[in-house]
Every structure is written in C-alpha cells, then in structure tokens.
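COURSE: Structural Biology Practicum
ASSIGNMENT: Worksheet 4, Part C
STUDENT ID: 0417
INSTRUCTIONS: Below are two proteins. For each, the amino acid sequence is given first, followed by its structure token string. Answer the questions at the end about the second protein only.

PROTEIN I
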Amino acid sequence: MKRNIQLFLILCMCSLTFTACNSKKEEEAADAIDTTEQVALEDVEVEDYTVLKYNELEVLAYEGDTDAMVMLGRMLEYGADDVKQSFTEAISWYQMASDSGNVDGTCALGYFYLTGTGVDKDLDKALELFDTAIEAGSTNAYVGKARVLLEQLDISREDEEDAQDADTLKATEEATNKSDTDSESDESVIPEEEKNIFDLFYKAQISGDVDGSYYLGYAYENGIGTAVDYKKAFDYYSRAAKSNSTDLSDQNAINKANVAIGLLYIKGNGVDQDSTQAMEFFETASNNGYAKGSYYLGQIYENGVGVDKDYEKAMEYYLMAADLDYAPALNQIGYMYYNGYGVDVDFASAVYYQKLAALQGYAIAQVNLGFLYENGYGVERNLETALSYYEMAADSGYEGALEAVVRVKAQINEEM
C-alpha cells in the first residue's frame, strides 16, 4: 500500500571565524542555529519500496510504516546488497508488520512456520497465519495454505532433485518425450484433498500471483490434484519465468520456474529434449544468484550433458552454489575432491565439504561421511562416528543407509 510520509530537510549553516566574538555575536549565532529552517514536504507517496535503501526503510518502519517493515523483512530473508541474510531479524520485522495488521507480514510469517526456517516447524501455526492472510485479501496466502496441505498429505516432491547425486543428469540420453496420452491419469480417482490443493494454486495464479503460476506448473508436472500434463506445466512455469516483478519473493519464484523449465528440457518432458535450452534457463537463474541454477550447470559440465565434460567448469559452478550454502553443491565438491575430478585428490577437503552438507541434514553427505569414517579416508578411522552418520541418513529414510548401519554394527561387534 502507499503511505503518505513527511520528509524533513534540515539546512544547517555553519561559519568559522578567526576573530574573537563578543557575547552579542555568540547570541546571534545561537539564534541562527535555533531558527534553522525546516522544510516539510507533505503528501509524498512511496511508489516503490524496493528502490529505498535499508536505512531509509528503517526510518519509515520506526515511524510505523508496515510496508517498510515488510520490505526490511524481505531484504533480510533473501539477503540483498550490503544486507546480510538473517532469518531471525526478518521474522522480527514480519511479526511487527503482522501485529500492526499488514497482511503481507502475516503471510510471510506463515512461510517460516511452514518450512521451519528460523523457528520450530509448526504446520498448524502456518495454516492459521495463511487463513488469516486469505481473509485479509492475500492472494499469495493461497499458495502457502496449499503447501501446508501438501506437507500434511506428505506428497510434496518439490525438493526431490536435491536428493540426486553425481548421476543426476547422466541418464538424460535415455529420457523420452512423454506425450499427453502417456502422462494423463484418471482424474476421477484423484483425492478431494489434492483437488483442493490444486484449486488453491489456481486461485493464486488467476489473481496474478507469480508464485501461484510456478506452483500450478508444479501441480501439473507432478499430478497433484490433476492429471499429469507436462505441456501445461511448461506453460505455467513459463508465465512465472517471464514475470517482470522486482519483489524479492517473486524473484525466488521466477528463479525456481527457470530451473524447473531447464529440467523439463533435460528430461524431454512436454518439450523436445534440449540441453542447450536447459543451460540457458539454468544460467538465467544462476546469474540471478539462485543456487540451484548454478548447481545444475555444474551437473551438466561434470557429466558432459550436451557439452564436453569440464570438471573445472563444473567446480566453478558448484562453488558458486556453495557460496550460498547449498547442501547438494557442498556435497558434490566433496565428491570431486574424493575422486580428483578437476582437482588433486584431497580426502581432507572431501571430509570438510561433506560435513558442511551433512550439518544441513543432507542425507547423501551423511552417507558419504559414514563411508569416509568407516574406511579412514581423510580422517582417522572411527566406526562409531561412521555409524552415527549412517543412522542419521537412515532416520531420514535414505535408501541404502540402513544396510550400512547393519554392516558397521557387525564390524563394531567383531572388533570388540
């Protein structure tokens, strides 16, 4: 919303003199300071909060401007020029905005409780916040509510690509184009709960919400509440990717859409398989500072998908993603050091990067660390530590981790 504010211009006049001043002149100088001219410019409208600097937004926020509070939250949530990412501070500003009745602040808080970022994950709290925001007129809250319902149904597949290892793109030549006939399913057997999720995404999309366009594409790609339709997925992803919005949350949706389109081209789903086109979309996301875009470019160069293998180029992109603390990229850098791809074999560096990824709960890195400790590569052999990492991965349901747990327990018993 627009808010009328007062801008005060304080003009101060200072003079220097090398001669002694009598008391009368001092009084006159004091009077001059006391009567400093103040010019008030009334009814100045803030058309675009995104052009304001952090300190300018702070001034407005402390004056009670809730839109400025939300913008501060956005900058802290996503990080911006000269603004270090801080979820705790972002939540604080969003909470202040929400408490003052700002619907965007309420909606933003919902996402933190949905993902458990900076707070304990609480789907009930997230749903309550999204419902409140919907009642107040938020369109993006439809997306948030749908995502909560997805989590509750345990059918969300949005981050499945994060669970892929170095072979993510190796099998792309075996991928086949899927026609609409191949991908359609019987809509009559789609559960009502999923149809409700689809309807929420649709409501957001027709209201012009960029996130809504992305998630409607996501629903079509994954068959959530509708038949799988890769061409429609491509269409809605494209609508999001073409958005000109400068809002930081919309930029995130735009980046996700670019990566999703790139993966459709890699797999040949709904479009002709085309790694060159895929790279263009990944590069767009990467150039916007989106870690997954950089990560998939690294995968393409590491595995030689449509290009000559180039481990050094792959490492360059992985490091770009790692700078954004992206766990799959951190894991992959460790994998490169372990195998000596584009770098000298360095088990210590392999352990270092695997630990950074494992600390984020990334199961593949936990399994890799278990292997390194089990065999004493880059670290002193320690079966108990290996077991603990394998158990972490097993607890998250990672395939093969339970087998490793059994194997290491047997070794421990043998060596007792």
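PROTEIN II
(use this one for the questions)
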Amino acid sequence: MIEAKAAVADGKGSFTIETITVHPPKAGEVLVAIKASGVCHTDYDSLKWGSPFVLGHEGAGVVESIGEGVTHVAVGDRVLLNWAIPCKCCYQCQIGNQNICETYSPVTGVPDHGTAHLGATQWRGAGLKRSFHLGTMSTHTVVRKEAVIPITVDIPFSSACILGCGVMTGYGSVVNAAKLEPGSSAVVLGTGGVGLNVIQGARISGAGQIIAVDVNPQRLEMAVQFGATHTVLASRDDVGLLQAAETVKAMCAGRGADYSFECTGIPSLGAAPLAMVRNAGMAVQVSGIEQPIEIDMNLFEWDKVYLNPLYGKSKPEQDFPKLLNLYARGLLQLDEMITRQYPLERLQDALDDMLAGRNAKGVIVFDPK
C-alpha cells in the first residue's frame, strides 16, 4: 500500500488536501505515480457532485506497477491518462464510438465499471471514488489499463497531461466531429482551454479564417497566439451577442462562417453558434452543456447541422499518438499553453486563476522532472 497526498472533494463545494491509501493494482490495472494534473473547469463544477472523491481527470506520470494482463506498458514507462475509457466490446465501441462506451465511460457507461477495483483508493477506512475513474490530483492512482496511454515523444509531464481532456476535446471537435475542410472559415465562441484547442485544430486543419469571440481581451490575445486570424470582443449581454453574430457574418461575406464552435459552457449560449454559421454550415456545441437550453428553430434555416460531440469523438489508441506526433513536429502548441504551474497545496489559486481567465491552462505539478 502507498500513502498518497490528494485533493479530496467533499461533494458539497469544497475540498481539502488529505493523505489517502492507494492499494496495488489487480488484474487489468495500472498504478501510476502522477507527475502533473491539468486544472479544468469541470474540476470546479465537480466540487458539488454529492459525495467525497479524488479530484482531477487530466494526468500524466510514470507507471509504478502493473497487474496481470497488462502488456502495453511496463514499470517505468511515461504515460498519460484518458478518461473516456473504451471497453471495445459494447455496441458503441464496435461501431467506432469509443468516446461514448456503454460499459466503461464515466459519462455514458455503467456506473463504476470503468474504475479500478473497489477499495483501490481508501480514505478514513472507506473506499474513495476518483473523478472520471482517474483522480489525477493525487500523487498516485490506480486505473484500468484502457485508461493508460504510452508517451512516445519527448514532452514535459505538464504538457502531456492536458492532452487527456481539454486538448482532445477541442482538437477532436474540429478534426473528428466537424471534419473541417481546408480553406474554410471557423468562428470559435469562448477561448478558454478548450476553445484555444479548437483554434489549434482549425489551424492545423488548414482553415483560411479563424475568428475568436470572447468577452475577455486577454483571452483574445491568447487566441491570436494559437492561430486565430481575427478577433471579436463581445459584451456579456444579449445585445453584445447579437452584435458579435452580425460582426462575424460581415467578416464572412455576409453569410456567416462555414463552421462555428461554442466553447463557453454557458447554457444561454448553447444555441449561439447557430447564429454565427451560414446556411448549410455546421454548428458544434463543444463544451458539453447539460442543462436545458432554448433554441429558436429559425436559427436552423436553412440546412444547418448542429452537433454535440463528447470528448472530440476520441478513439484513444488512434488519436493520442497523432496528438503527440503533432506536438513533436511543432504543430500542436502545448508548452506554450501552460500559463502557470502550482503545487497541490495551491489548487485553490489555480481554480481562481482559471475562473478569472488569467490562464490558458494551469497545471498542478507534483514532480517537475
């Protein structure tokens, strides 16, 4: 057994740094010493999930031990973790939708099937759940082997860890879901960590025009660094949104962009990409809004497509090697995205900086090596 230091959410809106117990892996499981964990808006949202659990779902580290049947990684390997864990056997996995696995996914699958064995992580004498079956804001975690992706290029852990959610979600929404065509125009509403990776996906895909829309001028400056060709500073009210939509249309020959991506996570903006895309264009709701949203059906005129993909329609064994290769070739900017690094004890500062829009991406670092 290992005594690990972890951020434990109480389920009611707060968290504390605690010492927890992590047990050895069983068959089909891997024990990972976490070196870095990304700070995502979902981590903040999850604080009120109702019961105690280990925070964090973006992680990278080193394999410390493996259970029986694990062959794709060995002790000492550098790895990143993927939360959309595919079983490869269910209906959705069989037809290519590994991101919405019916068995292991923490979002669409059978509850707890994707986690490691019951009691793998304990606190105060009881089993402790882990965020998205991972719990990366801990010095150690035990996960299913399907969640573990080998790192095959020279990359800092701080940069590798963010691949496991924000980068995959943003890039995949462009490449896997929208299948953006070279030379086309794209508008990105919201330029946080996910939005910046939508911009990167559009740039790498060869978009001719990438328009970033945000209410924060600092974030628009970041957007240009990652590939935006134009920016629109919007105000926070309905009038500001309408003006932004008209500005976008004017910038796209008066008809709207070929593709539009909503990356704000704000329910009232769920339909906003439809107002910014041309007839027969594609609007993509990237941020995973789960609350009810109101949509004026007139916004669908005419022949517009509205997508709500999960996790960029990721196929982990295919997509993560591609992302790592893009990084190694200098095409995918990850090091540049890490605005600040924090020790675990400063997690609240990291959350505050994220909510204030000061970071492209903040990362908790356990070991800088």
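ANSWER KEY EXCERPT:
Q1: The CA atoms of residues 66 and 119 lie 17 Å apart.
Q2: The longest strand covers residues 29-39.
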